[in-house]
Design brief:
heterodimer; A: alpha/beta; Rossmann fold; six-stranded mixed beta sheet; 32% helix; B: two-stranded antiparallel sheet; 1% strand
Chain lengths: 513, 319
């Protein structure tokens, strides 16, 4: 099997592509090619240049140097619509749906079907239905507002929208990061079909098992350079990770300490909310990391929000260190020592245009103020400590937090909460769209915080992560906790079986549905 | 820092441009008066102090407006909050005049704040409604009998008299400015204001009591409008209906010309200060040039649009 791509049949070929942003090198002399009928994974840490590569191919930004050939002809796309016209379609990491428009409107937003010059709503709806059916998601109602769909389904709509542009080269930039397991399967099937139809597919994901399952070929990028391209099976996962980060990594997850009987920190009794949470009881001891697993949208996020005082009308009891608390707002939750790293760091976790220091200090201003006045000496010291503790890579604390990479932004969100010395830390999928190196740092940090006595409730869509990080995992299904897995029971098979709410043998053996 | 002088921060650029434009207005006005009358009255301290005194009323209103704009809201009830405060102050009279006037403003601000923060009505609608209600109440107030409209001596002293040649109104404006600057830069409340303006959801999830902060901001804005009303009544020796009508748009314009983002989250108070001076001088120079009212309005509007174009389009939304 040749590991060097035969360039004569390349559908897309880049040569010598370079790009700088305000003096910072994003891509440097990149040669890259991909073929029809192949799924080609692009791997690399955040900041490795993957996104810039994609943006150049999709016409969002123009390269400073180099040439791009599509089916043998030299092209340069001045805009995404020019790229679309040539059959290059990209599904970006950030969702681009208009929240208040319907699914059908969104799917046809660029070129709605017309009748007598006016938009033909019926044709538009049929088109949306057909495209959603192609992905196998007929259950999405095209007349629903995008806002009302769960994140996973919005991502599906995004994919349908891209399909509607009849791609010859389809680029998925972390487009599966928000998908539930069920939807991921559908998208895989769709990608396989497109592949057989001869579409070239570029696939970017931080999830190694997805890449292993899907990709025919992979290219690794690091620091703006193309490091290596190889065919499926030529490199082990460890090799790939090594290529991506360029340094040794000892273990993927920090070791779990021998289980100790910590005092109960958080206890939930019969927590219910509007039919979305159904009599949830759960105990977390000091020093424990408890995972929340299951398919997406089974109430895990609502549970975290309920504990953080965001939801109205929650019934049942929440005990923190044996004292009942009723947090009616995040401010009240913070006062009893609860912290939440929210789902979407860019809209819920950070004030993006504000400085790193402002973002870090916002939750703990009460502690570093004298009367109404912020004590700037205390603030500077606290900000410095937080940056050092999480090893956040920054220029200056006064830089806008938007200038940081995704991984470092997430560190800022976490550091902000650690500055409040929380006893209970709620994490809502904190590693979504974050590079491998930063993920490992976060895992280590979680264990360190637990060792210092915090109770951690950790929701993740990545089963691997739950198994590697958690002392115990509670699997949710339809608003209930259906099973708690611990110790040797904590296997992927058991998690999946419980997530689908099907019986598995107790020893975690065979559970094929 | 050396780099600061080379590359201006995005908050400082509009302020510098506005300051330069003030010089352009003064220069153009002076050239005109020199050619026409052979003198340069615009550059005399007397003229400038008088302009600042007039600017003080707008300045106090704009200070409050800026706080509300910073959290991404707007207060359209300013005109009749101002008028109501002035009218109630004069009709009560005596030593209670000023406290009653200010209390009216704080109360209207409280109502606005509750409506926006707790009832979740968009501020543009809610404050517009409150403005109409206040107007109706004031018409009813003056309709039944003839209340006293003369300003008290203290109000006149505060607004018109001078100490060491400097109008008292300027001291009031300066005091308000110092309070606002300290609040925005040194207090936790100030940080919360910017945080809410940038991303209310993120501030809320960081445990900031966003509703309380919103109410406080509207109360400050109402109080500032009332203070301006009391001063203005003192300056013109009486309160009258519609006295606040000329203050709403100039106040918003001053804030925006000063570089504050109309959608909230960004802006420095120094900019608002300069925006107020710019607007007052522009008005004054246009009237010296005996520009007819229609022309003045056109130029005034064009200047605002032009300034915002010069500041550059809003940055593209980076999600």
């Amino acid at each position: 099997m040749p590991s060097v791509p035969p360039t004569q049949q390349a559908f897309l070929a880049l040569s010598g592509i370079s790009k700088r942003y305000a003096g910072v090198r994003a891509l440097e002399g990149v040669d890259f090619a991909c073929e029809r009928g192949k799924i080609h994974a692009v791997l690399g840490e955040n900041g490795a240049g993957k996104s810039t590569l994609i943006k150049i191919i999709a016409g969002v930004v123009q390269p400073d140097a180099g040439t791009m050939r599509l089916a043998g002809n030299e092209v340069s796309f001045a805009s995404p619509s020019a790229a679309n016209a040539a059959g290059v379609v990209c599904i970006f990491q950030e969702l681009s749906l208009m929240p208040d428009l319907s699914v059908a409107d969104n799917i046809s937003i660029a070129s709605p079907p017309r009748r007598f010059g006016l938009i033909d709503a019926r044709a538009q709806r049929r088109r949306a239905e057909a495209l959603l059916a192609e992905i196998g998601c007929e259950d999405v109602n095209p007349l629903m507002r995008a806002r009302d769909l769960p994140l996973s389904r919005r991502q599906i709509v995004e994919i349908a929208k891209a399909l509607g542009k009849k791609p010859q080269l389809l680029i998925l930039d972390e487009a599966t990061s928000a998908l539930t397991s069920a939807d991921v399967e559908k998208v895989y099937a769709m990608l396989a079909r497109l592949k057989s139809e001869g579409v070239a597919i570029l696939y970017i994901s931080h999830r190694m098992h997805e890449v292993e399952a899907l990709a025919d070929r992979a290219s690794v990028f690091r620091n703006g350079r193309h490091i290596e391209t190889f065919d499926k099976g030529m490199r082990s996962t460890a090799d790939i990770v090594q290529l991506m980060i360029g340094r040794d990594i000892a273990t993927q997850y920090p070791p779990k300490p021998a289980r100790k009987a910590g005092r109960p920190m958080l206890a939930l009794e019969n927590l219910s909310w509007e039919g979305r949470l159904d009599r949830i009881s759960l105990r977390i001891g000091a020093g424990q990391i408890v995972g929340l697993g299951g398919l997406d949208g089974q109430g895990q996020k609502s549970l975290l929000l309920a504990l953080f005082g965001v939801l109205r009308g929650v019934s049942g009891r929440v005990m923190v260190e044996d004292r009942e608390v009723r947090a009616g707002s995040p401010a009240a939750a913070k006062a009893v020592g609860i912290a939440l790293v929210p789902e979407d760091r860019k809209t819920e976790g950070l004030m993006l245009p504000m400085s790193i220091a402002d973002n870090l200090a916002i939750a703990s201003l009460g502690a570093i103020s004298t009367g109404p006045f912020v004590d700037s000496a205390k603030e500077d010291a606290a900000v410095k400590r937080a940056i050092a503790r999480l090893q956040i890579k920054i220029g200056a604390p006064t830089d806008p937090v938007s200038t940081l990479s995704g991984g470092n932004q997430q560190k800022v969100v976490l550091a902000k909460w650690l500055m409040t010395d929380p006893r209970i830390i709620l994490l809502n999928d904190p590693t979504r769209g974050i590079d491998v190196g930063t993920k490992q740092e976060l895992y280590r940090l979680m264990r360190e915080l637990a060792d210092q006595g915090a109770a951690i409730l950790f929701y993740s869509t990545d089963y691997d992560e739950l198994i590697g990080c958690c002392d115990r995992v509670a699997i949710m299904y339809d608003g209930r906790i259906v099973r708690e897995l611990e110790g040797s029971e904590l296997t992927e098979t058991n998690i999946i079986a419980s997530a689908l709410n099907i019986d598995a043998t107790a020893d975690g053996g065979v559970a094929h549905a | 820092m050396n780099s600061a002088s080379l590359s201006l921060s995005r908050d400082d650029r509009p302020i510098l441009i506005a300051a330069l434009f003030i010089l352009v207005i003064l220069a153009a006005g002076t050239v005109y008066t020199f050619a026409r009358f052979g003198s340069a009255p615009l550059l005399s301290p007397t003229y400038l102090l008088q302009q600042l005194q007039i600017g003080a009323f707008l300045g106090v209103v704009a200070a409050g407006m800026m706080i509300v704009i910073l959290i991404g809201q707007i207060d359209l009830s300013v005109p009749w909050t101002l008028a109501a405060a002035a009218m109630m102050a004069t009709s009560i009279g005596g030593p209670l005049a000023i406290p009653v006037g200010l209390a009216i403003g704080l109360l209207v601000g409280l109502v606005n704040g509750i409506g926006v923060a707790y009832l979740r009505v968009p501020s543009m609608i809610f404050t517009l409604g409150v403005n109409a209600v206040m107007r109706g109440l004031m018409v009813a107030h003056t309709g039944g009998y003839a209340p006293q409209t003369a300003a008290t001596d203290l109000m006149r002293t505060l607004a018109s008299d001078r100490t060491l040649g400097i109008p008292h109104a300027l001291f009031v404006w300066a005091a308000v400015s110092v309070l606002v600057v300290v609040m925005l830069q040194r207090t936790a409340l100030g940080r919360y204001i910017y945080a809410i303006g940038n991303k209310e959801a993120a501030a809320y999830l960081a445990g900031v009591d966003t509703r309380r902060v919103t109410v406080i901001c509207f109360v400050i804005c109402g109080g500032a409008a009332a203070l301006a009303g009391v001063l203005l009544a003192g300056y013109s020796t009486k309160a009258y209906q519609g006295m606040g009508d000329a203050y709403l748009l100039p106040a918003i314009a001053a804030v925006v010309i000063g570089g504050t983002n109309i959608l909230g989250g960004r802006g420095r108070y120094l900019g608002t200060l300069i925006g107020v001076v710019l607007i007052v001088l522009l008005n004054s120079v246009l009237s010296i040039m005996e520009m007819p009212e229609a022309g003045r309005q056109v130029i005034y509007g064009l200047v605002i649009i032009f300034m915002l174009l010069v500041y550059g389009r809003g940055e593209r939304v980076v999600s």
